[in-house]
Amino acid sequence: MQPLRRQDKKVAMGMLLPAVVFLIIVTVMPMLYVLYASFSDWKLTKSAYPILTGLQSWRAMFKDSYFYNSLWVTAKFTGYSLVSEMILGVAVALLLARDFPGRALIRSLVLIPMMITPAVIGLIWRIMLNSDFGIINWILSEIGFNPPAWLASSNTALLSLIVVDIWEWTPFIALSVLAALQTRSQDQVESALIDGANSFHIFRYITLPHIQPVLYISASFRMGALLRSFDTFYVMTSGGPGVSTQNLSMYIYKNGFFYMKMGYSSALSVFLMLITILITYFFVYRSKIED
Amino acid sequence: MQKTKQLPIRYRTKKKTWKDLLLTLVTYIVAFGFVFPVVWILMMSFKTSADSFAIPPKFIFIPTFDNFVNVFKNSFFMDNYKNSFIIAFSSTILSLLLGIPAAYIITRFSFKGKKPLSFWILVTRMAPASALVVAFFIILNRLSLIDTLPGLIMVYMSFNIGYIIWMVRGFILSVPIECEEASIVDGCGRFGTFWHVTVPLCIPGIVSVGIQAFIFAWNEFLYALILTRTKWKTAPIAVLSYITSEGIKWGELAAASMLITLPVLILALSIQRYIISGLTMGVGKD
User: Fold this and answer.
1) Nearest beta carbon to residue A253 from set B1, B27, B130
2) Would the pTM of this model clear 0.90, i.e. be above it?
3) Cβ distance A189 to A202 under 8 Å?
4) pLDDT digits (tens, 9 = 90+) for A106-128
5) Which of A243, B151, B278, B284 lies 20 to 30 angstroms, CA to CA, from B214?
6) A65-288 has which fold?
7) Where are the domains of chain B?
8) Residue A8: its chain B contacts at CB < 8 A?
9) Closest by Cβ to B239, choosing from A11, A123, A176
């Protein structure tokens, strides 16, 4: 890599600046704007501009039980989904790494859930989970269960969303891990076998250390996405029943575009942004983008 | 990175046992689980409403094209479907035009503040839409850009440029620096080298990144939900209008969902080997 020489500087600036300036306009400016608006008491029903009132929104936020509820929903959704996706993802990767007839086809098929438009995924599962004619409840009652109305009960709505997310994103972990598995040294495995290692030993001492960086990175990408998830929530439950699936994104949406409380919605937005930046920083920046 | 042979991994080289067969069976069941929901809705899109609601569910039925015909006749949905194409395509092209040159500079030059700049570009991609949408709504509202093509393209570029810069960076890194040096010695100049040497060598990668950026824009939901009203509504929002207060038109809902899914599936399967590294933006692949 060459340092920037003077005669190149103009060309380089001309190539770099348009993108950087554009990104500042469409990301930094909105971020600063929500930060500014978070210090205002701003209801769209009253005024078109934020009127600064200091920490009012922030104070209200930390006293708001619905805010804590949305944090709790977000945490449960993120935690359960992430752990399940990581474990199942590794398991599926190990399955797909084996030699079996139709490998190429199966790998392509597994790709499908994570590529589909999330709004459509929400609809697909709404149809399948329907308590009157959905196929899932039909199967469950055929084999002797008494299935609940998944999305209509506050006990099972979040669980349903978690299951859908696992369905959608386990393939992502699985295929990432699979790619890493293919660069695992076969010699090492063979010499371990000669030394009498069993498949658990091989997994624990050779495979796991080898796929660890990939696990780390894909987990941090998943975590970022889980914290901000919105689409399937909106399509499948809209935060209900009650507030049982009202995660942070949903609560931001409702405050901003339902109750028109822009100031309060902005404070919540800043909070979500801070969490995301912290997580991105700890997981991605500190580990892997050294040149 | 150490390159080993890309052979299927086997823990043992012994002959097939019942355990192997069992694991293969489990693999097929798992794959079936990932595909079944999509297949089920695909079947539903060809069912009459009586067949869709049948209990027990019908796996064998006489297909009807009525649902698709009705969706094609629904000019609102088809307009929104067309919008999705226009918005996703134009935001992708513009993002590539801005992103590729920037990626080149970030990859091939060292300058003060490069690392924080790269990290910031990465963060722009991870920025939660739900946290930015309030600001976008207010800003576009002030500029009278709500429900307009430029407004939506601008917002979609905000998440695709960072992605493109990071991915293209990876492809540029794999271009041998000697090629570029030779071109500079020949007097091609910096930009000429970039344009005539580096970009052509990266074309397969650029195409795959472009396709992924298109898919991200196509799949986007929240911005389209808030920042459009009628004229520039996109397909993922429009499909929800099959859920009305009088009831849900299930067959048409399924048919419209499949129409939204179709381009994504074709595009995704055409570039599948790039998708995985794409989803983590090539981080950790250096």
Assistant:
1) B130
2) no
3) yes
4) 988 998 999 999 999 999 999 89
5) B284
6) MetI-like fold (1.10.3720)
7) 74-279
8) 109, 190
9) A123
